[in-house]
Amino acid sequence: MNVNSSPAPRWAVWAAHLTTLVVLPSGLWRIALALGHPAGYTEEGFVPFQSPTAKVYMVALSVVCEALAFLTVGLVRPWGETTPRWIPLIGGRTVRPMAAVIPAALGALALTVLWWNVPWWWTFPHDDMTDTGKLVVGILYQPLILWGPLLGAVTVAYYRRRRPRPTP
Predict the structure, then answer these.
(1) Superkingdom, according to UniProt (predicted)?
(2) Alpha helix locations (H) across the chain?
(3) Which of 38, 82, 114, 139 is deepest in the core (most CB within 10 A)?
(4) Over the stretch 57-83, which tens digit does the pLDDT of each residue have?
């Protein structure tokens, strides 16, 4: 069996890069909270975000989300086909297609389920937020609904491009 290694379709490259951007607004909002800006919360509602633990959590969550979103780019770049040489033990090895497809597909499914209700943000009570804060935070979180579907589409493109083909 031969593994196909054709270039990623242009739409998949755009979608992969867009994935990193849809995660950015909510991450920047959490970092603003960690830096001490109430970012839409009332004075009382902001209290839980002022502890050192909460601040570390919000920054870590933002960094981890952005790093996970960036992994989508690997599905359209050469480092998603061959691990970079600088990575200990596995550097320079070919990535088996299903080793990328299975986690990416599960991630796409999980993200779609996690963020499906974001469009209805404004229908939920947010007593700890100002009216403006509720509006702004809702807008900043709306792009997250695209994360799962974008990852899913790029994953399908990766699979189609890299699936094993019978040797002639």
Answers:
(1) Bacteria
(2) 10-34, 43-46, 52-71, 97-115, 131-141, 147-162
(3) 38
(4) 999 999 999 999 999 999 999 988 888
